[in-house]
């Protein structure tokens, strides 16, 4: 009636029990009958150390217990004079917030935002934005200087701000100290940390890399073909030589996101011909028709949507000159063309490798097309070498773009904005919360050991020290939020068309496309769960436009977190429940299924490097050959292939790190399996989640059935690895299946 807050009711707790490191405290509170509904509990920690508060249960009310889920670290009063407030599991839109909670809701958000000043300390809970200015280490070595990612010159998503001192030699870069800050509650749990520490990136750096350097003294030395382990071979040691595997893995491998329909002929570059040479592709109609003779003409193949391509030509060509100045590597712009056979598999047709003209040495543009040979041993070996180059390009693109950029870096702004703008009691915060678990911590570790100067990516993946600049170029030229939704991505690449009569409203261009066919079922299940949830809290569109927190959240994602893209016209509006459903489903899909599809098969497909070399170290023998070099290739072509493959040192490092990255921890939370407490306390949401859980269980059965279908040759057959990357559930370890809620590794 008065609008004033009720006086708080205070007490001290006493230790009740301790078991397996978990302590229970208890107390009694006397709550007057007219107090009203309890909405929050304020906690003060009088211990000397921080404590992890799991939950609070208030028992004794007529309507049953009140649950307060905390799952948060609480600092001792000696280190933080501000008490912590924890809200009950009941969700409120801002306009529906009870008067007694309004101040606490606003103050908690203000604390999480911080003031953008000072250096963050371990244990802080502040979420703010910064550019990627900590990848280099110019003070220790000028060769380790790296450009800042984020801004007009090198656009990139933002990361969490640490506020460390700037380096002496580069005022734009932060010192890469041991303080790679993430907010305290974003850090790994003790269970995750103990499991991760045993075989982590840091362990690879501290143990495997030095050991590899000791054994293989020359980082650029001979290739490591001796390494054979449990991989895609499934008993066939020579699977990696086969063209059918080359085609199959574009649809059912670890990077099924690059294959696209050929929509225009002839193939043309869009780069400036004054800089990069004539734009016409050397892949001619005659070359293609020689390879598909007996099936159809090229015109018929185009009309029937039978030609597909991996196109890294325009993307890589600007980096060729830079990369070729580095020791122990090379680079081309590349195109790989495939034909869809009547049995639904992709037959490799041609590979084009291109070197742009060089002002330094005056060499003109060089380009050559390689095709599967019918009866020429020389052409057959050249085809193998060309495939190795394309696979190295695809491996680098996968790691830097399909994996890190799209499912790690682009997620971090969503996490920061959610904590800064959506209260913990906001229903959308609670919907997205499990999709953000551990992501900021794993991104921080990546900046320390994977994507940093002289880190694992620069040691072993094409294009070495220019890797992150390649990621920035793709973000600038190709990344769009709306295309991160699976249906729109498939349509954009020509891999599907809208068809209201087809399942999921899409007709796939290639029916046996495991990533897409399994993914669409998961997308639809996730979309329906989000739709049920959003419709419950937003029955009227006016609630969307009047939700100040929600509108600030979406504005901050677009204009700050992805600020280099803020003026793009393709950003979705947020005015209706359907707008919100699409936005949230896209974020949740990216964090869960998209990451699972490109991550948890890395060891299986890339650990045995001949199947998926991370780098190609030598030029093609046909590029400006000397008589001596050509004779050496003719005499020992297998040596040319081994020299092109990663070195033993690189192979060991890649195998070790891919094993780490493909691992599920024991505390993994899988999509549709674990119900958040706030969801379970609302009968409508609980019922919607149970339906979602049922859909995920049904998907497991569907995938098993598809993998057993002999007609689906991209996921069934002798020596073929079943496609299980989008099976929702898994046991711990390297399993090649399981979709966690979040990008947690």
UniProtKB/TrEMBL annotation:
<dbReference type="GO" id="GO:0034440">
    <property type="term" value="P:lipid oxidation"/>
</dbReference>
<comment type="similarity">
    <text>Belongs to the lipoxygenase family.</text>
</comment>
<keyword id="KW-0809">Transit peptide</keyword>
<feature type="domain" description="Lipoxygenase">
    <location>
        <begin position="91"/>
        <end position="745"/>
    </location>
</feature>
<feature type="domain" description="PLAT">
    <location>
        <begin position="1"/>
        <end position="88"/>
    </location>
</feature>
<keyword id="KW-0479">Metal-binding</keyword>
<keyword id="KW-0443">Lipid metabolism</keyword>
<dbReference type="Pfam" id="PF01477">
    <property type="entry name" value="PLAT"/>
</dbReference>
<dbReference type="InterPro" id="IPR001024">
    <property type="entry name" value="PLAT/LH2_dom"/>
</dbReference>
<dbReference type="GO" id="GO:0031408">
    <property type="term" value="P:oxylipin biosynthetic process"/>
</dbReference>
<dbReference type="GO" id="GO:0009507">
    <property type="term" value="C:chloroplast"/>
</dbReference>
<keyword id="KW-0408">Iron</keyword>
<comment type="pathway">
    <text>Lipid metabolism; oxylipin biosynthesis.</text>
</comment>
<dbReference type="Pfam" id="PF00305">
    <property type="entry name" value="Lipoxygenase"/>
</dbReference>
<dbReference type="GO" id="GO:0006633">
    <property type="term" value="P:fatty acid biosynthetic process"/>
</dbReference>
<dbReference type="InterPro" id="IPR013819">
    <property type="entry name" value="LipOase_C"/>
</dbReference>
<feature type="compositionally biased region" description="Polar residues">
    <location>
        <begin position="170"/>
        <end position="180"/>
    </location>
</feature>
<keyword id="KW-0925">Oxylipin biosynthesis</keyword>
<dbReference type="GO" id="GO:0016165">
    <property type="term" value="F:linoleate 13S-lipoxygenase activity"/>
</dbReference>
<dbReference type="InterPro" id="IPR020833">
    <property type="entry name" value="LipOase_Fe_BS"/>
</dbReference>
<keyword id="KW-0150">Chloroplast</keyword>
<keyword id="KW-0275">Fatty acid biosynthesis</keyword>
<keyword id="KW-0223">Dioxygenase</keyword>
<keyword id="KW-0276">Fatty acid metabolism</keyword>
<dbReference type="InterPro" id="IPR036392">
    <property type="entry name" value="PLAT/LH2_dom_sf"/>
</dbReference>
<dbReference type="InterPro" id="IPR001246">
    <property type="entry name" value="LipOase_plant"/>
</dbReference>
<dbReference type="InterPro" id="IPR000907">
    <property type="entry name" value="LipOase"/>
</dbReference>
<comment type="function">
    <text>Plant lipoxygenase may be involved in a number of diverse aspects of plant physiology including growth and development, pest resistance, and senescence or responses to wounding.</text>
</comment>
<keyword id="KW-0934">Plastid</keyword>
<keyword id="KW-0444">Lipid biosynthesis</keyword>
<feature type="region of interest" description="Disordered">
    <location>
        <begin position="138"/>
        <end position="180"/>
    </location>
</feature>
<keyword id="KW-0560">Oxidoreductase</keyword>
<dbReference type="GO" id="GO:0046872">
    <property type="term" value="F:metal ion binding"/>
</dbReference>
<dbReference type="InterPro" id="IPR020834">
    <property type="entry name" value="LipOase_CS"/>
</dbReference>
<dbReference type="InterPro" id="IPR036226">
    <property type="entry name" value="LipOase_C_sf"/>
</dbReference>
<protein>
    <recommendedName>
        <fullName>Lipoxygenase</fullName>
        <ecNumber>1.13.11.-</ecNumber>
    </recommendedName>
</protein>
């Amino acid at each position: 009636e008065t609008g004033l807050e009720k006086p708080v009711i205070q007490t001290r707790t006493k230790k009740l029990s301790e078991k397996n490191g978990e302590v229970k405290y208890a107390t009694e509170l006397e709550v007057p009958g007219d107090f009203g509904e309890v909405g929050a509990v304020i906690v003060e920690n009088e211990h000397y150390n921080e404590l992890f508060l799991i939950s609070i249960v208030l028992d004794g009310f007529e309507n049953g217990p009140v649950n307060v889920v905390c799952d948060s670290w609480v600092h001792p009063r000696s280190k933080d004079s501000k008490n912590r407030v924890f809200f009950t599991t009941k969700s409120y839109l801002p306009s529906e917030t009870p008067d007694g909670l309004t101040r606490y809701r606003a103050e908690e958000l203000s604390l999480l935002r911080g003031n953008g000043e000072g250096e963050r300390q371990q244990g802080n809970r502040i979420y703010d934005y910064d550019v990627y200015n900590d990848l280099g280490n110019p003070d220790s070595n000028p060769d380790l200087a790296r450009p800042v990612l984020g801004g007009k010159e090198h656009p990139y998503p933002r990361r969490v701000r640490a506020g460390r001192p700037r380096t002496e030699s580069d005022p734009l870069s932060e010192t890469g100290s041991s303080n790679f800050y993430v907010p305290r509650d974003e850090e790994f749990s003790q269970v995750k940390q103990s499991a991760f520490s045993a075989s982590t990136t840091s362990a690879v750096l501290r143990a495997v890399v030095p050991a590899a350097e000791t054994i293989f003294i020359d980082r650029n030395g001979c290739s490591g073909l001796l390494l054979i382990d449990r991989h895609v071979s499934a008993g066939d040691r020579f699977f990696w030589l086969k063209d059918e595997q080359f085609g199959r893995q574009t649809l059912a491998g670890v990077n099924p996101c690059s294959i696209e329909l050929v929509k225009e002929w002839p193939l043309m570059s869009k780069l400036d011909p004054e800089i990069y040479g004539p734009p016409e592709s050397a892949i001619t109609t005659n070359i293609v028709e020689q390879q598909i003779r007996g099936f159809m003409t090229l015109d018929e193949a185009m009309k029937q949507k039978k030609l597909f391509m991996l196109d890294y030509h325009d993307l890589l060509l600007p980096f060729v000159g830079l990369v070729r100045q580095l020791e122990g590597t090379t680079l081309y712009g590349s195109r790989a063309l495939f034909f869809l056979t009547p049995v639904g598999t992709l037959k490799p047709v041609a590979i084009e490798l291109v070197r742009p003209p060089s002002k330094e040495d005056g060499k003109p543009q060089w380009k050559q097309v390689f095709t599967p040979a019918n009866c020429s041993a020389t052409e057959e070996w050249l085809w193998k070498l060309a495939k190795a180059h394309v696979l190295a390009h695809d491996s680098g693109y996968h790691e830097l773009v399909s994996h890190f950029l799209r499912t790690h870096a682009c997620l971090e702004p969503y996490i920061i904005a959610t904590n800064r703008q959506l209260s913990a009691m906001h229903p959308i915060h609670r919907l997205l919360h499990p999709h953000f678990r551990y992501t900021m911590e794993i991104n921080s570790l990546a900046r320390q050991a994977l994507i940093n100067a002289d880190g694992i990516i620069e040691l072993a993946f094409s294009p070495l020290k220019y890797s992150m600049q390649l990621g920035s170029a793709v973000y600038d030229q190709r990344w769009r939020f709306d295309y991160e939704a699976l249906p729109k991505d498939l349509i954009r690449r020509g891999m599907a068309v809208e068809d209201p009569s087809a399942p999921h409203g899409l007709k796939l261009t290639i029916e046996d496309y495991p990533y897409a066919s399994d993914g669409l079922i998961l997308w639809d299940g996730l979309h329906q769960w989000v739709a049920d949830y959003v419709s419950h809290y937003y029955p009227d569109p006016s609630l969307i436009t009047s939700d100040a927190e929600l509108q600030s959240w979406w504005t901050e994602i677009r204009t700050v977190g992805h600020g280099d893209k803020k003026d793009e016209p393709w950003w979705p509006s947020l005015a209706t429940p359907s707008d919100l459903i699409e936005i949230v489903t896209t974020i949740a899909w990216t964090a869960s299924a998209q990451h699972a599809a490109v991550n948890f098969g890395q060891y299986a497909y890339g650990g045995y490097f001949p199947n998926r070399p991370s780098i190609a170290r030598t030029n093609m023998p046909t590029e400006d050959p000397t008589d001596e070099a050509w004779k050496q290739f003719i005499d020992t072509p297998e040596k040319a292939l081994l020299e092109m493959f990663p070195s033993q040192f690189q192979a060991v490092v890649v195998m070790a790190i891919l094993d780490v990255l493909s691992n599920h921890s024991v505390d993994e939370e899988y999509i549709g399996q674990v119900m958040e407490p706030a969801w379970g306390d609302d009968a409508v949401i609980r019922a919607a989640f149970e339906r979602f859980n049922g859909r995920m269980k049904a998907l497991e059965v569907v995938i098993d059935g598809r993998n057993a279908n002999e007609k689906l040759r991209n996921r069934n057959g002798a020596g073929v690895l079943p496609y299980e990357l989008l099976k929702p559930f898994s046991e711990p370890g390297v399993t090649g299946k399981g979709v966690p809620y979040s990008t947690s590794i």
